[in-house]
Write a structure and sequence with these properties.
It contains 5 helices and 13 strands. The protein has 265 residues and is of the alpha+beta class. The structure holds zinc ion. Zinc ion (ZN) binds next to loops. Its EC number is 2.7.11.1. One of its GO terms (molecular function) is ATP binding.
């Protein structure tokens, strides 16, 4: 079994009667029956963890994870100190282990495990992932074109693998060294993409019915991809169609968007 020792203060400490000098020990939560570690290990996190996000139910810390036979690892600890998110944490851990396992380390953070303990009838849960930077500070529509292009690629990869994220928003998109990673997978689901069209470079804006109404479409809409009605396409302003649907994509970032191809699927 693997145990996690936390020695920094948590918001629930007073409610559960914990002195901060007491290390809090959480048990590794196997997601699958054969997921139980064969050896006994204690993992620790440094006491001077920094807080990244403060919430009524969840706090997120950045810390160094110390494991036997490993160097220190820069991680994020998402801790439910309210006991209200136990199911959501399990859903998220399952998504990391199953739905998006193949993307860990690339467009999804590496997942180190989910840990739990119960104190004074409150279930404390902790998910540990690789630290992957800060959430986007700008709204998606105002984000730089390279970031939008990268996000399209990332979301398209996920959908092609048959997964919908379910909660795409700025707070769930991390940026570090120019690379995007998606977090907060608790609402993720298996997804059969109903997308009817591939994205056309400089295409006529499809209707939701033509494209398939899913989070890809929603994301493109939210990013203003299909509302650049006055942006000239190839130097020609094509926004003169009476139907109002002939609008150009903002093509300035298209060349870096390698997963987008011409043509019908
Ligand atoms: Zn899809």
């Amino acid at each position: 079994m693997v145990y996690l020792e936390i020695s920094f203060a948590l918001p629930c400490d007073r409610a559960v009667g914990r002195q901060t000098s007491d290390p809090l020990t959480l048990d590794y939560l196997p997601i699958f029956p054969d997921d139980t570690p064969q050896t006994d290990e204690v993992w620790r996190v440094n006491a001077d963890a920094t807080i990244l996000r403060r919430g009524d139910e969840i706090h997120v810390f950045r810390a160094q994870l110390l494991r036997p036979n490993h160097g220190p690892t820069d991680v994020a600890l998402k801790i439910d100190h309210s006991g209200k998110r136990t199911g959501a944490f399990l859903d998220e851990a399952t998504a990391y282990t199953k739905l998006v396992a193949a993307f860990q380390g690339t467009i999804v953070p590496r997942f180190f495990g989910c840990f739990q303990t119960t104190l004074s009838n409150t279930t404390i849960s902790c998910i540990i992932t690789e630290y992957c930077g800060e959430p986007l500070h700008t709204n998606l529509p105002e984000s730089p074109p390279e970031l939008k292009a990268q996000l399209i690629n990332v979301v398209e990869q996920i959908h092609r693998a048959g997964v919908a994220h379910g909660d795409l928003q700025e707070a769930n998109i991390l940026l570090k060294d120019g690379k995007l990673k998606l977090i907060d997978w608790e609402k993720a689901s298996s997804h059969s993409c109903d997308r009817q069209l591939r994205l056309l470079q400089g295409a006529i804006v499809p209707t939701p019915e033509e494209f398939g109404r899913n989070e890809l479409y929603e994301t493109f809409c939210e990013m203003g991809l299909w509302s650049a009605s006055t942006t000239p396409f190839m130097g020609v302003n094509i926004d003169n169609n009476p139907s109002g649907r002939l609008k150009s994509l903002d093509i300035t970032y298209r060349p870096t968007c390698t997963s987008i191809r011409h043509g019908r699927k």
